[in-house]
# Entry
Amino acid sequence: MSDELGGLRDRLREFARARDWDQFHTPKNLSMALIAEAAELVEHFQWLTPEQSADLPPEKIAAVRHELADIFVYLVRLADKLDVNLLAAAEEKMAINERRYPADRVRGDARRAAEYGSRAPPE
# Structure
């Protein structure tokens, strides 16, 4: 784990410990908080056109930045509780995705792997 990510994890541990909140930071509760924050992020983009969503005004960017931070904090805390190294997990998942979606076979096609039919990349 990177020093920065490990430092954030440690800071979040201390934050929860100092407030006696560790008792509430169960994987169930953290995953529920994570999805609630993700829903708050989605609200900022609901009903926008693709163009509008890519060109947010500064005040909306600030609000989105805070929602992304909330999501990240809950994700780091959940990974800590489950002893998951997020960077290693992301590397592992990218290797899987590179096999499932080879660029020369799926370029410009955003379907799920199972939807490729006879063109389906290997699992």
About this structure: The helical segments are 3-18, 27-43, 50-54, 58-81, 86-100, 103-106. The mean pLDDT is 93. The longest helix spans residues 58-81.
